[in-house]
Amino acid sequence: MSALEKAFTSKPGKAIAAKAGLKEPPRLRRGRTWPEGAIVLAQIGDGTLARRTLSLLGRSFESPVIDDGGDSAPGYGSRIGALVVDATGLTRIAQLEELRAVLRPAVRGIERAGRIVVIAHPSAGDWEQRTVARALDGINRTVGKELRGGATATLLYVEPDASPGDLVSTLGFVLQGRSAFVDGQAWTIAAADQPAEGLSDRPLDGRVVVVTGAARGIGAAIATTLARDGARIVAVDIPPAGQALAEVANRVGGTAVQLDITAPDAGATIAAHVARSGLPLYAVVHNAGITRDKMLANTDADRWASVIDVNLSAQMRINEVLLDPATEGGLAEGGRLVGIASTSGLAGNKGQTNYAASKAGVAGLVAAMAPDVASRGITVNAVAPGFIETEMTGRIPFVQREIFRRSNSLSQGGRPEDVAETIGYLLDPRSQGLTGQVIRVCGQNHVGA
Ligand SMILES: NC(=O)c1ccc[n+]([C@@H]2O[C@H](COP(=O)([O-])OP(=O)(O)OC[C@H]3O[C@@H](n4cnc5c(N)ncnc54)[C@H](O)[C@@H]3O)[C@@H](O)[C@H]2O)c1
Question: Which of 2, 225, 238 to mutate to test the pocket of ligand 1 (most atoms within 8 A of CB)?
């Protein structure tokens, strides 16, 4: 049971929530689950990408049959599980009407925790083409805010030369419950050298993945989820967290390294540990992070330095060592790097200048690194969690916490596993066409979303 569910089932929690007129938030669908109702596929133009990708996923789909049509309360007849719109043929502003016509009934007709996914080409071409590509972003963000019952909206920009095999891990992630807390987001998928042939339940089988800050919270969930996906976890955390770290490592069948990531030799220590295993290093998830909140007027040099060092500089130093081809136990070709940003960093948050600097910095770091390591098949991305139910956020006073956790389109805090699932998607070898980007796992946080 999540902290939120506990809050609602505890007597004082129930009383306060009821008094404040707060409704119980919708239950989200999680894990490798598919929508229950039909997947409806709508076309704008004659693109075949979505159709072929759904076939690759082994999902059957229907064409939209909109009863009553027009402007008189149209619907899809029965509740649908997902609407996938192939808008790769969208080039003219007038065609946005076709999108409205298929989206409108879906907003009411979608099941609990259903999905609306629009697939389009990124901004390119003449003025009008570039304009409509951008218009889709506004539509997606708004649909995300209007959907009810835990349903989400996603916009996928797919490069014209990308194939269904390049899109398969992404569309699978978005339709499945793994993307429960990703809402109102848009990202871009490019063509990869070796397009995938389908989804796997154990995409990380036998691959070594380092997770920093793994002793608790989101890091422990990342270790658990990636181990479920087959990864051999190297769990890293500071020595005082040694016991909790060992428990996590044992639970997931991995190994533990007690290490302060700000140590000058942190990268070398990680590499030496991996080298002893005799297996290549596939991925590093830079999850360890701290907050030292104060209004800027009260932020001294120590508060500033510690947050920047743990959340940003340490990550860059470790990456440099692990990317050096001379490092034994360094990152293999085709490897993955993932940083953890934060919606606070992207949107700015009172009392968190140091934290925001570090987390916006992570977004800058992945964008800067991505092109430089692309020739080695390495992808570098970040996830930006919003309000996630952890020990850290559990310490916020109830009323304030309730405001934070409800300030998003899904009216609840996310779970650590929601962040972990998104990282699992990025680590999937099939997610090769995605680099230098940030995916928010924030339920479409209303702050700067
Ligand atoms: N919880 C949220 O709502 C939220 C929101 C946005 C971003 N994040 C980010 O997600 C990450 C995990 O957050 P969490 O809520 O699980 O935090 P947490 O405080 O529960 O866990 C962080 C872990 O990192 C470890 N750590 C800290 N400094 C370290 C160091 N120098 N070397 C090695 N390990 C170190 C800690 O010991 C701890 O186990 C952080 O980067 C955080 O900034 C969290």
Answer: 238
